[in-house]
Amino acid sequence: MTSEQNDPGRLQRGLRARHLNMIAIGGAIGTGLFVASGATISQAGPGGALLAYALIGAMVYFLMQSLGEMATYSPVVGSFGEYGTRYVSPSFGFAMGWNYWFNWAITVAAELVAAALVMAYWFPNTPSIVWSALFLAILFIINAISARTFGEGEFWFASIKVVTVLVFLVLGTLMIVGIMGQSPGTSNWTTGEAPFVNGGWGILSVFMVAGFSFQGTEMVGIAAGEAEDPDRTIPRAIRAVFWRILIFYIAAIAVIGFLIPYTDPSLLNPDGDIALSPFTLVFDRAGVAAAAAVMNAVILTSVLSAGTSGLYASTRMLYGLAKSGQAPRVFGTTTRRGIPMAALLATTFVGAASFLTSLIGDGGAYTWLVNASGLAGFITWVGIAWSHFKFRRAYVAQGNDPADLPFRASFFPIGPMLALFMTLVVIIGQNTEALLGQTNFTALASSYIGLPLFLALWLGHKLITRAPAVKALEADLTRRSDAD
């Protein structure tokens, strides 16, 4: 173990390559795949769903390449918030950091609500607040021990999801080829309007859902600040994670498209009933005993995984903001084990308070909080692409050769610019009905509330500090990390 890992009072590099891989995989594979994937096929048909996920996958590939280049060069916990400050402007970095912290702090609250709903499947008479309090305590303890404890916890949580997907793919393939029951052949790809249903609008609607499904992959950037040997582990994680996630999603949707027709009403599943999950339906047809109960248990691990990762990511972002002078200094302190305890406690409190709003009145305040955080992940992706573009310009302007970078992003500058454009399309298309005047102002505001909040942070910081944009020749290209 290196001396920097033994030093107290700072972050410690306790995350290994396998931890980084599973942190990103765990962030991206969850209820979006296990439950919502059926609705995407119902809306766009199997071909439309596959195309939408492939396009989003290409966008995420470019974003991960951009993040990998910056995170390997400067593996700091503040990650894209810090990069925004150093390469774009202090105000942009400030807004990026607080936007991301808010996003995952609210997501922790959403996962507490989801955990209580999952447990109601087995214990319908137990008050939901009991389960939510218990799971919040578990999430806190996992994060409070050490970075490696978090990494191990996320590794095993994510492993359960990965194994579930792999078993699903194997059983589904056996059913498709007729080894387990009668093969449906390609009939579900040609029935009705299949393979493309509702034309371009169907693909666009799934495009939005697919974007949400892939959110969480950027956590590799946050974890980079505590990764062992970041020059080696971060590029490995960046290269491996994207392809694994894309294969899981594309293959799973293809299997569902073969086995369940898009006209099957169970695919819509507006209430998120686990018994109507396409995974449950396929497992049940394959003869898996208690398929719904098994998938409910998997969903629970997904919820805990997302909650643990969310608490970790938001805590580290708050720590990074404090270290850069953009949050109170107390949040930049750590325990002897390298845990930013003040930031962890503050984030846990905000998550708990946000959860309590779901129990007050009709839960309207909680709904607005969740909607406000909905765009935060996409805004983060915009920031990653733009920060990378500015980083590379500064790197070259200051006389450096991109060939010397420890990890070099593919397809620059087309990659980040294409990712930036596609992410903006996702942001604008959040509520196409509202944009076309087919719904009321409240629905419109609810869909886009996260955007004015981000702009308020950005412009507010700009007005107060008068901080100028960063010029290419003046950008801070010092290689450093929080553990050094």
TrEMBL record:
Signal peptide: none annotated. It is a multi-pass membrane protein. GO terms for molecular function: amino acid transmembrane transporter activity. Coiled coil: none annotated. Residues 19-469 form the Amino acid permease/ SLC12A domain. It is found in: Membrane. One of its GO terms (cellular component) is membrane. Keywords: Amino-acid transport, Membrane, Transmembrane, Transmembrane helix, Transport. Belongs to the amino acid-polyamine-organocation (APC) superfamily. Amino acid transporter (AAT) (TC 2.A.3.1) family. This is Amino acid permease. It comes from Trueperella pecoris.
